[in-house]
Structure prediction request, 91 residues.
Amino acid sequence: MAKAKSLAEAMGCFTCHQVAAKVVGPAFAWVAYKFKGDPKAVATLSHAIEHCVAGVWGSMPMPPQRVTPAEAKELASWVLAQKPVAPPKSA
Prediction:
């Protein structure tokens, strides 16, 4: 998992996301909570990382990231491995 965190750092993910707090996008722990128990979570999140996604966490879209499908899957798995925390009601 350290490799995935390094990839997230190198790709600039922490510019818009943090593990436990909202920045521009949701906290990774909130994403882990939302997808907890979803067998399609890695595929869904990988797709969101590779392609533009909007409207899931508000009006700010997440632009497509320049990653390979394998890197997107690695990042998605790392995000989903965070300790799930429910987002605040206002998020």
Q: What stands out?
A: The longest helix spans residues 69-80.
